[in-house]
Amino acid sequence: MYRHLLVPLDESDRAIETVNKAVNLARTLGARVSFLHVHDADASPAKADAMPNGYAGTHRERAHALMTKAEAAARALGVPCDSVVLEGQTPHEIILDTARKGGCDLIFMAPHGRKAARGDALGSQTMQVLTSGETPVLVSSAQDMGHAHPMIELILGEHRALAAVLHAWLYLLNQAASQDRAVVVELMRSMAQYIIKYPLALHRPSEHDYLFFVLRGRTAVVHAELDELERQHERERAMAESLGDEVEHYALGHATLEQLRDAVGTYAHFMWEHMGRVEGVVLPAAQRYLSEADWNEIQASATRPDSFRANGEAQAAYRQLFSRISDACIDMNGTTPHTAMPGAMRR
Fold this sequence. Notes:
This protein is an alpha/beta fold. It folds into two domains: 4-139, Rossmann fold (3-Layer(aba) Sandwich); 148-333, nmb1532 protein domain like (Four Helix Bundle (Hemerythrin (Met), subunit A)). 62% of the residues lie in helices and 8% in strands. The chain has helices spanning 15-29, 59-76, 91-102, 114-117, 124-132, 150-175, 181-216, 223-251, 257-289, 292-302, 312-333, and strands spanning 4-8, 32-39, 81-87, 106-109, 137-139. The protein has a five-stranded parallel beta sheet with strand order 3-2-1-4-5, sandwiched between helices. Helix 1 links the parallel strand 1 and strand 2.
């Protein structure tokens, strides 16, 4: 019986699928999980827009976000876990060495790589782990995300948009000392405005008013988790508004850059945990328990004529705000939030 799973994760959109499958297996076995991310600083990004010019310094924040999401999903399902981020040019060797040193008796991996994502073949690192080590390896099936309902893609897109702004803000704070203070303050005001208004107007309704409501009527399996996420929505609003206040305190000289960095980092960590619970627990449960009719009902509610999503002017205003943040980052540092603002839901 396996007691300790090592779960290597990359930065692909499929990582959270691997987390959910590994954690559910561990829960069935009564095992613990160790998450591992290996960063190859010399490797090219898997996608052209995955790591834009100037964003190498934010890898620590992105890795922290990935591991925080993974651990949040595991804890929500009652599975003991830990995580580590390592760096090296031979990920498969680091994976095998970590499994050996950590006493892991099973490596649970996704078929990483672009070919694997298309279902053509196992990724090179997965293949090397399979053929190079003594620890048993279980390769997860590659789920076809093409069958996911548009509402799921929309929620994930909202997560990516909010995460992009947070990563940009954290990067900006690391560079702020060498930038024009007035320019930095105005950019941070835009970021705070986005973080305060965007989740309240768009993201919270997607989860709380539509998805959570229908899912509660179909299964009691995630009731406790939905209760916690709804409590987090209330905390999220208060924390976001507090960030706006912190920016103004900094602008007036009443708060230091370090204090502002701590506040943004705390909010970001909170949001990574929230996203991990939604992506790693709730969305998989929704895919299991909701019918096509349920998803269509959620989509119809989200796009009804009086909803925010049906307001073209409001949608355009958020896209413009996101673009303004992106353009300002490019002007200042040659960097940009590495995602696109999600568009209106397809009807």
